[in-house]
Amino acid sequence: MDNKLQCFNNFLQKLVGLELFHGIKSPDIQFYDFGVGYPVESESYNQLRRILSPYIIHATCNFEIVWVSNGKVDYFNHVTNKSLFDNYFVSKIKGLKIKKITLDNNNELCLFFDECFIKFSPFNDNIESWRIFSTVEKNSPHLVASATKIDFE
Fold first, then answer.
1. Please, which of 7, 30, 58, 147 could form a disulfide with 122 given CB 3.0 to 4.6 Å?
2. Across the strands, what pairs with 101?
């Protein structure tokens, strides 16, 4: 495994063992926001004190949730109704603990839980598809991926 890929995987492993605490679809811009880990007070980018999960996943790409018990696949994208997703999150995946995270050569990010897995599939271009960042580790880079590249920013 090359050094850069090892750095990406080391960063992602910090999320293993943490729970999905919140998930919302932004009503005004086309992205989903997942909070990973129990929220703590931290200083945001504009010096305001906020209660946030230690890690955040912003996804603008399509993603699917695959249920292990029956193979059912639930698809989400930019046209998914906001309240539909928000209710889905609270009723089905809130509180699930991340057991494993994988990143493949196409920059598909998979979060594995006992009950299901979530697969974030980048668009077929160089537009940002997902990003993960820490709200508590100051000056920590964001891991940002598109279909054609992945890097820390």
1. 147
2. 111
How many domains are contained in the chain?
1
Which pTM was predicted?
0.93
What is the spatial distance between Cα 96 and Cα 83, in angstroms, rounded to a whole number? Answer: 20
Residue 35 has pLDDT above 60, yes or no: yes
Phi, psi of 103, deg, nearest 5 = -135, 120
Q: For 108, left (φ over 0), alpha (ψ -120 to 50), or beta?
A: beta
Q: Which two tokens stand for residue 73?
A: 């696949």
Q: What's the angle, vertex CA 122, arms to CA 89 and CA 30, rounded to 5?
A: 55
How far is the C-alpha of 22 from the C-alpha of 38, rounded, in Å?
9
**SS percent in the chain: helix, strand, coil, step 5:** 15, 40, 45
Q: Look up tokens 């997902």; give the residue.
A: 130
Please give the distance of CA 112 from its chain centroid, rounded to a whole number.
12
pLDDT tens across 37-66, in order? 999 987 766 677 888 899 999 999 999 999
Using the Cα atoms of residue 77, residue 80, residue 82 and residue 86 in order, give the sign of their dihedral: negative
Residues 6 or more apart in contact with residue 56 via CB below 8 angstroms: 33, 34, 35, 36, 132, 133, 134, 135
